[in-house]
From TrEMBL:
GO terms for cellular component: mitochondrial inner membrane peptidase complex. It comes from Cymbomonas tetramitiformis. One of its GO terms (biological process) is signal peptide processing. The keyword Hydrolase applies. It is found in: Mitochondrion inner membrane. This is Peptidase S26 domain-containing protein. Residues 12-100, 107-150 form the Peptidase S26 domain. Belongs to the peptidase S26 family. IMP1 subfamily.
Amino acid sequence: MFRRIIDHPNLEYVRLIASFVSTVYVFKQYVGQLTVVNGPSMLPTLNRSGDLCICDQFSAQILRHIKVGDIVTCYSPRNRNNIVCKRVKGLAGDVVEVKARNNWESDRKVTVPQGHVWLEGDNRELSIDSREYGPVPTSLITSKIALRIWPLSQFGPLDPLK
């Protein structure tokens, strides 16, 4: 009887589905996933209306291969339920010049501590970033934006040199 269950033709479909689901899960958890980026903080690099991007989680989480100029996603230091998208402006040990947001503040320099990065949006006027909440722990980084796939007219890798 047990032999009949093992040889049942529908069991092959169950194995195929289980294999597919586990492959998708591992890919999504450790390699990469699709992400929709919304909001004005990365204008003009990313559109406010929702660019669809492929995110590289493996480089960001496992290898910790992040460099200045990369665009990353991370948990917001202010609200861990939100994920934000910003550009890396400084790594641990770097001295970052923080420009004043208004006339009554002055420019300042900040040394990024070990285990942290300095993140800023490309749209300085509309971005809440490290200028407000300080250096961000690298443990909050979830992925690196690898490629924009939508809109098709802007398909391709993002400029890392801003």
